[in-house]
Amino acid sequence: MKPPATRRRVGAAGIAAGLLIAVAAVVLGVWRPWIPAPSTTPISAPADAASGPSAVIAPAPLVLPEHPTVLVFGDSWTYGSAATVPTLGYAYLLADLLDGETVVNGVRGSGYLKPGIDGPSFGERIAALDPSLSPDLVILQGSINDRAQGVAGYREAVNAAWDAMAATYPEATIVVLGPAPHELPVGAATARIDADLSELAAARGWWYISPVAQDWITPQNYLDVIDVEAGRQHPSTDGHRYLAEKLAAALDELRAAPVTVAGGSETTPDE
Could you report the per-residue pLDDT of 151-170, keeping only the tens digit for each? Predict the structure, then answer.
């Protein structure tokens, strides 16, 4: 496995009244109109029929220092595949857009279940990370590489990997960047992965950014973003620049998100 590349610079009458109060409490405690809408339609079936659907926890606003250190962890898109050189990949370009530093750890073909070309699956790779890195932000990207692996064991592998990342960098904020479509229309397996990751992130109170739900790649811009020839359906150099700009803008939105408390008033991070 090639070592990770590093870029420097970088939420009767008495009975009726009680029911009304209970409903109001649920509305105030769960429905928060100031929180961005879920990136995907919530999954109707629970992950475990015995335990019921996952709870949703409102994420805290993203707070970063002036010049953040960001670990970008993912698959071939994070590696920089199909860019003229890998260091023109979105994860490297993000450093200048955030006026900080990105530490890039991308392995081609890797997923939560699937081993990669240059290294193992996400969980094993996370176990090998340097705990002294101390990033301010961790971006967990992807992955479409688990499309053929099926549903069995997928959520368990995701949760185990996320537990390990959170334990390795307990002071870092973790943002999950879901899979981006390499082809259109979006395949059923990619949509399932996107929905699974969205729900699992919500259960932890982590921000989830969905390129699928937010239509980062559309029929209108597909050939401008994706190199379908030599790049084998990976982002082109221009496509990586576009993805870096979209990700930086999405992170800015998370930084501007209001601080909320169930039943309380909105405040901004500066307040």
Answer: 999 999 999 999 999 999 99
The pLDDT assigned to 54 comes to 57
**Inter-residue contact 196 to 144 (CB < 8 Å):** no
* pLDDT(202) > 70: yes
Amino acid at 169: Y
Residues making up the chain, counted from first to last = 271
Inter-residue contact 112 to 154 (CB < 8 Å): yes
Cβ atoms within 10 Å of 235's Cβ, excluding its own: 28
DSSP secondary structure string for all residues of 211-250: TTTTTSS-TTTHHHHEE-STTSSEE-HHHHHHHHHHHHHH
- What is the secondary structure of 96-149 as a DSSP string? HHHTSEEEEEE-TT--SSS--SSS--HHHHHHTS-TT---SEEEEE--GGGGGG
Q: Which of 76, 83, 152 is nearest to 119 (CA)?
A: 76
C-alpha pair distances (Å), 151 with each of 78, 104, 199, 253, 260 = 24, 28, 14, 32, 35
Residue type, 15: I
Structure-token match 């999950």, residue found: 176
Joined tokens for residue 176: 């999950």
Contacts of 32 (CB under 8 A, 6+ apart): 11, 58, 260, 262
Kindly give, in sequence order, each residue whose CB lies less than 8 Å from that of residue 82, ignoring residues fewer than 6 positions away: 227, 230, 231, 232, 234, 235, 236, 237, 239, 240
C-beta neighbour count of 55 within 10 angstroms: 10
Name the amino acid, one letter, at 174: I
Chain segment 209-252, per-residue pLDDT in tens: 999 999 999 999 999 999 999 878 999 999 999 999 999 999 99
**AA identity, residue 145:** N
